[in-house]
Design goal:
With 779 residues, this protein is mainly α. The protein contains 37 helices and six strands.
Length: 779
Amino acid sequence: MDTLKRLIHEIHRRSLWQVVSIYLVGSWGALQVVDQITQSAGLPDWVPPATLILLVVGLPIVTATAFIQEGMHRAEEAEPRTPAEQPENMASGTGSLDLPSTRPSFARGLFTWRNAIAGGVLAFLLLCVLVGGYFAMRAAGVGPVASLAAQGVFDEGEPVILSEFANTSNDASLGGVVTEALRVDLASSKAFAIVPPNRIREVLKRMQRDPSEALTAQVAEEVAVRDGIKAVIEGEVGSAGSGYILVATLRSPDSGEALATFRRTAKGPDDVIDAIDGLSQDIREKAGESLRSIKAEAPLAAVTTSSLDALRSYSEAEALADQGAYQRARALLEQAVAADSGFAMAWRKLAVVISNSGGDPDKSDAAATKAYELRDRLTERERGQAIAFYNDQVAGDLAAEIEAYEGILDKWPDDATALNNLALAYGSRTRWDDALRLLRRAVRGPGETGVAWLNLTLDLAAVSKLDSAGSVVDTMEARYPGSAQTSLMAHWVVAATAGDFPEAHLQGERLAQLPDVGPGLRSAGSNLMATADLGMGKLAETREHLQRVATEARADGQLATVLEAKASQAQVEIAVLADSSAAREAMRHILASGDLEKIPVGRRPYSRLVEALASLGMTDDARRILAEWQRERGQTQAAAVSEARRLIEAEAPSDPGAAADALGRLRSEVGCPHCFTWTMASLEERAGRLEQAAELYEQSMQVASGNMPFGESVSGLPFADARVLGHERLGHIYEELGDSAKAAEHYRKFAKAWSGADEELQPRVRAAKQKAAALGGGG
């Protein structure tokens, strides 16, 4: 109370203009504070305008109070008269009617500083009550501000279809621009998940409709009903003089009922992005997303582009990329970044399109780097994607890639890209259980893709769950009947892992002969045939397939693929024939050929070469390649270079037992529980630690190991072949350990797998049969 008295006394001392000036400055400060609180705490957008209205209403009250109180203050400062000289006015009860009244007037009694301050406090308390009521009604699902989530219409993460906006404006391209820009902003929503275009196309295929058909409101509703999706966002863009009107409706496809309708206007082309941003916020708020979450996102105008032409090019490119028309999409994206070099999302999409179309890796890396540098201009979700893509493609930092994707899934648990790509990253670290958990979510979620189904098949096979893998293939083919490439690769994996190498060879051959097959698929098919033939002991055909890959890649100018094929040939020689001298000579030929220097720096397979050289004991050559790698790419690929250096040092000791221990420590440190299993088993065997060797060989035959989603890259042996040669190694080890039954079983399985092997390998087959018979296991 004393504080209030002092405040009132201090105000009394000020002149009218001082009071008004103080009020205006204080009002401006209050508005800034309210605006900050609105953004950080997620208050409704009407709170700052309501605050401004209260302050405007308060201005004349404060001005009148200051004027009246200033007059009273001046009267008090005049020389007072003594009681004898100052008789009371009759109106006050005594004195003469001829004298001025000493009783305060009504205005002076009303416009006091105590009343003004009390009125201001009550007004702002009323505002707080209104805000509290707004949130209470929204959460309870009552009244016009009720969210759809509170009303039970939506669950968190609910899939929603965004149809193409109808366009009746005088700008023919504006409908597509608004649709794609809105898709970008709504992708950040935590209340619902926009159904991706690839899922829409798959539903259209099942409906026996053209997958490229325009997704009009009517088509979107049919797709939603077919796929059990609860809501569709429909919209229209129309002209209004020199400006535009944007209208969006959230509709239930089952009943056709409009759940909510939203409207925003743009005075002209420069205001279109702001209007889209406002429309997005309205939709997200009505769906039930936290206002704090919505306001935490940068406005669409800040994260996209100020150039409507750039946004047009980007929108058209997005649609083309979804249809696989990468070259046309790339041209449009290059136009977009030329129009606005700060268009972060266009740079990110350009990097992805160049990579997916097999374009120049240096240009893809440059675009990914630019997006990474501009990442603060991306939405939070897109920012995570850009960081992950950069660390995967440019920096080679697997730990940073994993961290980025995990961050996305913490906030958007159904993000299809993050689920699939994080599963691949986990697979690269042989974290198969984690990868399978994510892929199962991916194929059940709103972003389901054929690629996720294929990767689920690969990972199930990697842990020998062949029955489950076969069921997944059947489901995938039913859902994606036209995906021949995906289907063939899935069948190859199941057949090869099961030891049905003739069938695996057939699937690889079919892949290489698909109509209009490109160089990448031809190489993939040849590599799959090579793996299958090696599993049958057909070494000559394996060599032929790998040589074909190298020859065709050289003709196509793909020198990186040439080096990788040559490295595979060298590793096959030492793995199958234990001919280390021939393998080393082949690697020396690779290094002396000059091919490495002809490859663009961004495409040089440094990691694969270092890995192969280290596994062959060519430590000095491995260190030389590592030094070149660090010199050329060390600034961006520091994490990958560091890990390669540790691999070289782990395999460097001449004592095989020490090398095995070092590799075990390395895989523990990098979080790769099954990496280097085959190599460690071989080292333990050479060190005479047979129990440990047997355990590791058994592990390598049950769980895939290495740094690829499916395969043992360190030894050069794919998982399927390691299972065959593992039987031979385990036969020898168990025989030495005196376990005749296990030795005979493994010898017999090896002999069966290689029964049709090349003549140069038949002595090993006959020896295995003889030992199996001698040990009591049959021939």
